[in-house]
Design a protein that fits this description.
Layout: H1 21-46, E1 50-55, E2 61-66, H2 69-78, H3 84-122, H4 131-161
Antiparallel strand pairs: 1-2
Helix pairs in contact: 3-4
Length: about 180
């Protein structure tokens, strides 16, 4: 038989307000230091700025801030910092905007090429060639145009799915 335990071990404690004043102060002090330790670990591991303000049961304020409570409060009141999601999406949005710019350049080049082909066709250059060659080239132009429209639509869908902006000047923000 295994030996009998002398204690009940680690068990879940029911959370309710502590009635005894001495126990209340002891619990506050130990939990306060635990919260400070966790905040310090969070700052060390992730580089996050942390600001904590607690009021003791007697009403005395306790404050923890890294780098300092004052600097964190100023930046959070000014709301200068972008969200974590915005920061994480920035490289992807930049990459998608660059792809969008490249595809727009290709689209403009194809449109210019199509205009040149139409000018040449109307000037009689193509009339020298046989009718089969003419229809083949027209089919090629139509095929290129279709594929260009498909690629552009696919890029627009991808940019919109990833929360990107279809603003053609890249990362320009509209002024509100």
């Amino acid at each position: 038989m295994p030996p009998k335990r002398s204690s009940r071990g680690k068990q879940k404690v029911e959370l309710k307000k502590i009635e005894s004043k001495n126990d209340l102060f002891v619990a506050f002090t130990t939990r306060k230091s635990g919260i400070y330790n966790k905040a310090s670990e969070l700052t060390t591991l992730s580089g996050a700025s942390v600001d904590i303000l607690m009021l003791s049961p007697t009403g005395k304020p306790y404050c923890y801030g890294k780098p300092s409570s004052e600097s964190i409060t100023k930046t959070s009141l000014n709301d200068e910092n972008p969200s974590i999601e915005e920061e994480m999406m920035k490289p992807e949005i930049i990459q998608l905007n660059e792809k969008n710019d490249d595809l727009l350049d290709k689209k403009h080049a194809a449109e210019a090429q199509r205009k040149n082909l139409k000018k040449l066709e109307s000037s009689g250059y193509w009339s020298i060639q046989e009718e089969d060659d003419k229809s083949c080239q027209n089919d090629q132009v139509k095929e290129i145009d279709k594929s260009l429209v498909a690629v552009t639509n696919k890029l627009i869908d991808t940019v919109l799915k990833n929360g990107g902006d279809l603003n053609p000047c890249g990362m320009c923000k509209s002024s509100n």
